[in-house]
Design goal:
Length: 318
């Protein structure tokens, strides 16, 4: 088996075109265990981590661009990204352990095609797009359209994801991701629920609800979204969200959870994620701030100022 470490997207495309049966990898935290167990036998392994574009995270013109091979920990340690997308960061921060997060990428998490992938529901809820490269050029698709079933994607042979594009969240928007695992650490989701809400005062003006681990792919729950939009998040709405989430489930029955258990937990987690997303959306205090990027900068400045005032007050007290 060959190992190749291209440094440009074009070089990677040529390598993949010239080597049928080759596989790209980023952290290899899924691929290596699959090779060890004989489930995957690539003719060549193409390492994406040497391509700068695939490991960089940037923000410009109202959009985040996240390299597909960026380690999850680069996102969870990026205060501005965490500030704007706590839900996606929560998903990335639940992947395995610190060691796994220092290797694992969102591109690998998505393209491995696991229904339980933790970063995927929140990316879909946030309308993230994947920029895909191949011998025929580049194309951009919704993240929701990448995975077609367990272990399967819509990517053609020789294609790979270069980066994810995520538009800035509108003002008064919050997201959240919750998952249920039988163990507290190092386990995969029995159910995952991501919610993104935009609030107009105390009324929901826009909603996305996406479940993981309860169907062959992550699933959107349009009935829950319809119940949320226009509501003030009263008990009746939350009950409708839970019922819609449970109804959207088509889970497997395995040692981690029965169909009944996963179905019920999906409703509970969706409801809880709605409450957290709404709290985050409603923490938007300043009308002069025009986008959440500025908002999070301002919040940090506010926290610094409060810290300095505390120090000054202690000095005066002494
Ligand atoms: C101990 C342990 C614990 C784990 N816990 C969790 C967990 O809690 N939650 C969870 O979701 N996952 C978990 N995982 C699975 C894994 O760590 C994640 O799915 C991780 O995000 C995969 O990223 P990677 O970069 O390592 O992928 P890789 O192993 O490099 O690749 C995975 C698959 O995606 C393909 N691929 C990779 N990058 C691209 C790209 N840019 N374009 C196209 N295809 C690509 C590869 O060819 C391969 O098929 C765990 C794994 C281990 C070993």
């Amino acid at each position: 088996m060959q190992y190749a470490a291209p440094t440009t997207v074009d070089e990677a495309c040529s390598l993949l075109a010239d080597n049928p049966g080759s596989r790209v990898f980023a952290g290899a935290t899924d691929l290596v265990p699959q090779m060890r167990s004989g489930r995957s036998e690539p003719s060549a392994m193409v390492d994406l981590k040497r391509i700068d574009r695939l490991t960089s995270v940037s923000h410009a013109d109202g959009q985040w661009t996240v390299g597909a091979a960026t380690p999850a920990s680069d996102l969870t340690h990026n205060a501005e990204f965490v500030g704007m997308y706590p839900g996606i960061s929560e998903g990335a921060g639940l992947i395995g352990s610190d060691q796994i997060q220092n290797r694992s990428s969102l591109g690998g998490n998505l393209c491995n095609g696991s229904p339980a992938a933790d970063s995927v529901p929140a990316m879909i809820a946030s309308g993230a797009r994947a920029v895909i490269a191949g011998a025929g050029g580049q194309r951009t698709v919704s993240v929701a359209d990448v995975v077609t079933g367990p272990g399967r994607t819509s990517l053609a042979d020789g294609e790979f994801i270069v980066e994810f594009e995520i538009d800035d969240a509108p003002i008064s928007t919050g997201d959240a991701y919750l998952r249920m695992t039988p163990r507290t650490e190092m386990d995969i989701a029995v159910v995952g629920a991501a919610v993104r809400l935009t609030m107009d005062g105390d009324t929901v003006s826009s909603a996305s609800v996406v479940l993981g681990a309860v169907a062959p792919t992550a699933v959107r729950v349009p009935d829950a979204e319809a119940a949320l939009v226009g509501s003030r998040l009263d008990d009746e709405t939350l009950a409708a969200v839970a019922a819609a989430a449970s109804a959207a489930c088509n889970p497997i029955d395995d040692k981690r959870g029965t169909v009944e258990y996963r179905t019920q937990v999906a409703g509970v987690l969706a409801k809880r994620a709605v409450v957290i997303a709404a709290e985050r959306a409603q923490k938007e205090p300043d009308l002069h701030v025009t986008n959440t990027h500025q908002l999070h900068r301002q919040r940090r400045a506010d926290r610094l100022l409060v810290g300095r005032l505390h120090v000054a007050a202690r000095c005066v007290a002494r």
